[in-house]
Amino acid sequence: MNDAENRPDWALILAPMAIFLIGLFFIYSASRREGQMMDESLVFRQALWMMFSVAVVFFSTRFHYRWLLGAAWPMYAVVMILLVAVFFTPARLGAHRWIRIGFASLQPSEIAKIAVIVILAAVMREKQFGAYSQKRFLIPLALMAAPMVLILKEPDLGTSLLLVPVFMTMAVVAGMKKRWIVIFVLVAGLLSPILYSHLKNYQKQRILTFVNPGRDPLGAGYTIIQSRIAIGSGGLVGKGFLEGSQTQLRFLPERHTDFIFSVIGEEGGFAAAGAVIFLYWLIVHRGYRIARRSSNRFGKLLATGFTTLLATQTIVNISMTMGLLPVVGMPLFGVSYGGSSLLVGMFLIGLLVNIGMRRDPFL
Q: DSSP per residue over 77-108, as a string?
């Protein structure tokens, strides 16, 4: 193995760092209050989370990723236990998504995203998978569906649906025959009315509001209307830092979490929003390049799953702020305030760098 193969992909490391620094400015803008001390601000807490995240990236590049192959089933089992255990914890905001551990909260659904990708890669890595996919299709499908149903019941519609494109993309890379992909899509489409009937009332309202935001402009449609106003009013270069009316006058809800991109669009305009989108594109581009260059099926599948997860989450968040998709409550990696999604996202970045550094065909 030559020296070039041992070098980390610095573009893949620096792009998330740049996204995070941009995010800090807009978290400050979205959450600042007069007379607030620095150690009480969300920016200070987010900076602390990033310090932990840098350590996570360092850790996730130190071991050989083949270790994940042996840990796949134990990791999956632990996550399934946590996803069940979360229903025995007190509800927060009407949902069972967090397990309190000391001063911090653990969100099992965030860890589940990693565990599902690892177990799917472990199962699909066999060369026979593509040739006999019609017989092996149900195994990875069941492994994906079990945590998906539990996450949906929390309820967390956005995170549960993220697993579908991840599964489909990994299945294609593994060699699953196209007719089975088509069958899966058709079955999913036929089952969608049943899924809709089991959604919570507020989730149904979000879908109806997506179709027509004006049906309830002061209720379910309020957030998306304000988000569109914020992004549209930003123009080419934005209104300026701390000058966004929708943000500073608190018209825009969830402005430091799910709708942080709206703040970027309002105060930084198309220029800032475009720069952020380019940085996400760079991460996805490098991630898929690592997948293509991986010399073994396990690494190729892991990189594909991790990159698809980051890409899908980014596309869904940005699209919902512009009214192109229903609001599902999904953070924007590296920008939205929150520790769980940041730690998980940076861990995925570290694993992508790890796979890119090691091209030995160990399987």
A: HHHHHHHHHGGGSPPBTTB---EEETTEEE-H
